[in-house]
Design goal:
Helices cover about 65% and strands about 10% of the residues. The protein is mainly alpha-helical and about 150 residues long. The termini are far apart.
């Protein structure tokens, strides 16, 4: 394959292909075609480079939109990083595994609190309407304003 065809095959510019050739990432033979010296690339080597580049691009692409497979990352200052590392090691986990565990634990805990608050709001609403002789609209407004903070 000539340089133009090889670049198109890889989805890169001819200049980038020359850079890869100079770096030794792919080999090319010099041949004389129609009286001109040109680089000719082996299709199998090009396929191998294409697969290698696909692996590299996987790390550079943005995280998927699907939250079930999404990537979450953040930085920690030295104090919290050291603390996370120590606590993770004490539990036989990596820092990433332990950070994920803590995050899920916090999210589940928050969901539990929100569910309790909603149950309390429903109970207070029922008491205000049934026992407190409040109009449903006024009871609902009071619960929304004082308990649900909306």
């Amino acid at each position: 394959m000539n340089q133009k065809e090889a670049a198109a095959f890889l989805g890169i510019s001819e200049r980038m292909l020359r850079t890869y050739t100079a770096q030794g990432r792919i080999g090319a033979e010099r041949e004389i075609v129609r009286g001109r010296r040109t680089l000719v690339y082996d299709p199998a080597a090009l396929e191998a480079l294409r697969e290698e580049r696909a692996g590299e691009r996987r790390w550079r692409t943005p995280p998927p939109e699907n939250p079930s497979t999404g990537l979450v990352s953040f930085r920690l200052d030295a104090y919290y990083l050291e603390r996370l590392t120590g606590d993770a090691a004490a539990r036989g986990m990596s820092r990433g595994e332990y950070a994920r565990f803590l995050l899920l634990q916090a999210l589940e805990g928050r969901a539990g609190v929100e569910a309790l608050r909603a149950d309390l709001a429903n109970a207070v609403y029922a008491l205000l309407v049934a026992a407190g002789d409040q109009e449903p609209a006024k009871a609902q407004e009071w619960v929304r304003k004082n308990l649900l903070k909306k």
